[in-house]
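Sat 14:20. Reprocessing the chain from the morning session after the first attempt stalled halfway. Input below, unchanged.
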Amino acid sequence: MIRKQIDYFNVAQIAGSGQCFRMVPEESGGPAGPRTETESGWYRVISGEHFLRIRQENDIIEFDCPEAESGFWQRYFDLDTDYGAVIQGIPEKDRYLTEAARAGQGIRILRQDAWEMILSFIISQQKTIPMIQAAVEALSEAYGTRRTAADGQVYHSFPRPEQLSGVSLEDFKNLKLGYRAKYIHAICQDAASGALDLDHLAALDYSGAMEYLTGFYGIGTKVANCICLFGLHHIEAFPVDTWIQKILMREYYDGRKYRKIPRSRLCETMVRDHFDTGCGGILQQYIFNYERNVRSRRD
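Finished this time. Tokens:
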């Protein structure tokens, strides 16, 4: 058992942040649904072939994993980044963002596997978080490698491209992926053929990665931004969906300032004006958490 005192870290907030789909309350034994905490406080986290049990008491975090795995999880949870400095850098005049950051200050941008994020966020289109969790788990159980953790728990690693290269479109459809099945099938074929080069992708900067990713079938701007942020750790990436659009319009739209901006470029312009700090993706997560877990309950 490894115990660390960590500031700006909240296990439940990270698990419910919408960036990871295999970090679930341990008692569920699978997709977590809307719950964000358990009586025991333990969560299980699976990343690729790695398995962790984690829980928190105040600012003390317990990592139940072999000592040899501690370095992996140190990097995974981005523990070397000063999130306090990010929050302190928010302009005082931006009261909305200041409040959102205060409410979600335990969130960190995880350093997840790019291939897992590619498939996970293709799956995520038009799905709720519990539905994404269920689909990712079903894919892993069907085609990942069966493993046993140090404490005896059985889990399945996320399937690598070579494990999915021979899976048919019909087989993907049988996993209840709907219209996303054809996107998953295509990207697996691209990975198998080398058209999708994950090493090349990892070497690209943010703009290069966006251009590269959006060249593949089924990957639009929003999904590409999620992959860049959560799979490549380009923390300047700022995913915008319809929900974030509404927030931008409500909190940051200035009719006089933006009257000449075409509607197709309006959100892009507001993001650049208000979140172009080099860590916009962290700020986006504060907003996402605030709207989903604070304002929605308060209203």
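The beta strands are 2-5, 23-25, 43-47, 50-57, 60-64, 146-148, 154-156.
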